Amino acid sequence: MEIDPFIFRLSIFILSIFIGYYVVWSVTPSLHTPLMSVTNAISSVIIVGAIIAGLAGNSDSNFTNSNIFGFLAISLAAVNIFGGFLVTQRMLQMYKKKKLNK
Amino acid sequence: MSANLSAIFYLISGVLFILALRGLSSPETSRQGNFFGILGMTIAITVTFLSVGSFSSGLIYVLIFLLIGGLIGAFIAYKIPMTAMPELVAGFHSLVGLSAVFVAISAFLNPEAFNLGLPGDIKLASLIEMSIGAAVGAITFSGSIIAFLKLQGIMSGSPITFKGQHFFNASLLISIIVLTYLLCSTQSSNFFWIMLAVSFLIGFLLIIPIGGADMPVVISMLNSYSGWAAAGIGFTLENSALIITGALVGSSGAILSYIMCKGMNRSFFNVILGGFGATESFSSGSKEQRPVKSGNAEDAAFLMKNASSVIIVPGYGMAVAQAQHALREMVDTLKKNDIKVTYAIHPVAGRMPGHMNVLLAEANVPYDEVFELEEINNDFANADVAFVIGANDVTNPSAKNDPQSPIYGMPVLDVEKCKSVLFVKRSLSPGYAGIDNDLFYKENTLMLFADAKKMTEDITKNL
Fold first, then answer.
1. At what angle do helices A47-55 and B27-52 cross, to 10 degrees?
2. Inter-residue contact B209 to B165 (CB < 8 Å)
3. Which residue from A1, A6, B227, B383 has the least number of CB within 10 angstroms?
């Protein structure tokens, strides 16, 4: 009997939880705020679904409700992607070591 | 682009996201980590465009909406003050939640675009995954909106509770499961919409009973939810980048909530159920006025000038007063006098994990002078002065020695072991837990009643 592809996705999911568990425990507590903003940004990879929905089957400009929800989701996710990565970058720039010449 | 090839690219972006989080293990590697994150996102988006292939008139709209969102996001990221980071993160969570809902709705309305079957005849597994993604997304959205409003101060931070709250929430949760079952068996879109509405309601009800100062847990919890929502949608779309990311974010948020819970000595279960922070008014009976020693900036400056080591304990009050820059100036002056200064940060100081660290970093405090509770707690006994600015409950010794105290068992900073304690506070009012802090009345404590920023500036003048 063939294995359902769902099982493979489930395996990816479960293994990723474990990876997440170990990787996040090794994040230094002083970077927990950037951790939250960057996880925010990467979870907006949901935009791939929104793009598929937005581009789905139309040859003219007669958009279905499905397309429109896709467009809205694109905007929301884009706010998060740009906002999330940039604000993380801004925060990380501020973390500096003690200057040695002092 | 073939489905297999794009799947490989999605896997690559998933791996890059793992590296993005891995980079955060130290500040040196963190910027590189963020770069990996951006690279992963760029790959995922590009591959999606290539795999759809047929560029119809929808493309221009997709790009326009992408641009609008991107510009808004960039503008916010550029403008937001660091003290508003908790609000920002809560706001961003709500967007992830809502976009998960929207993607689920699109997929439900047009399942063919996602290879999920036909409208009214969607594959059972896809329907379940879609429902989970949509429900969790909706909960994340409305919950984050409430968290945002509470953090912004638009909504009162005090908990809103009513009778039978848990019972009501539990029955709503069960109704979601029933509705999903009905949706799967009848394929009727009505059940889908009702289920979404109930989910929005649950998110709202879950967060309203939680007090403003318990927000670190709430934000981490919603962070976790947004991840699970993304993962649910990832299963629907059969997209490994989304599944990997969802799992990473979900476990990241869960770990942060766990750390926050431990920092407040609350059980994880208690948090998931919501309804905490409604501390039943704790009256120790000793309401009579106890004498406190209060001083002014000159006294504080005198004490610190004669110290050889000072430990600074910042808290939410420092963020409210925007005192981080003034504080750093004070510390610079102290250092010029050869006084050793370090910072002690409690896990739940502020309104979100790591809140204080970011504010200190913003004020150019080197991160190797900033220590976590376990790292620094033994040093208080050897330090001359502890300078508590805007923190309260995290220093309360009753957490260690009064089993009656509501915060008994919570790990606290051993501030009272210092030779002298300077406590910057606006008034004698108790902290959010509503409990008196014995530290105020100790022999070696000097209370400095003033706005945190003004007091620090005055101390600097007197040094």
1. 20
2. yes
3. A1
**Please, are residues B462 and B333 in contact by the beta-carbon 8 Å criterion?**
no
Global pTM reads 0.89
Are A45 and B355 a contacting pair at CB < 8 A? no
- The three-state (H, E, C) secondary structure of A70-82, written as one string: HHHHHHHHHHHHH
Residues B230, A42: Cα–Cα separation, whole Å: 10
Torsion sign over Cα B265, B216, B376, B311: negative
Q: Given B31, B56, B95, which is nearest A80 (Cβ)?
A: B95
Instruction: Quote the ipTM score.
Output: 0.93
Instruction: Say yes or no for a CB contact (<8 Å) between A73 and B103.
Output: yes
Report the 10 Å Cβ neighbour count for B273: 15
Distance, in angstroms, between B373 CA and closest chain A CA? 10
Closest CB to A27: pick one of B25, B47, B244: B25
Split at pLDDT 50, 70, 90, the class of B268 is low
Region of B364 on the Ramachandran plot (φ > 0 left; ψ -120 to 50 alpha; else beta): left
B253 contacts in A (CB within 8 Å)?
Answer: 36, 39
- Residue B436 is among the residues annotated as catalytic for this protein: no
For residue A41, which of B93, B79, B218 has the smallest C-alpha distance? Answer: B93
Give residue-wise pLDDT tens across range B111-154: 888 888 888 788 888 889 899 999 999 999 999 999 999 888 88
pLDDT digits (tens, 9 = 90+) for B119-130: 878 888 888 989
Chain B positions touching A59 (Cβ under 8 A) are 56-57
Q: Which residue matches tokens 């957490």? A: B399
- The answer to whether B326 and B460 have CB atoms below 8 angstroms apart is yes
For B97, which DSSP code? H
Angle between helices B165-186 and B124-152 (to 10 degrees): 150
pLDDT averaged over every residue in chain B: 86
Residue of chain A minimizing CA distance to B40:
A42
B contact residues 218-237, partner A, Cβ 8 Å cutoff: 219-220, 223, 226-227, 230-231, 233-237
Min CA distance, A47 vs chain B (Å)?
A: 8
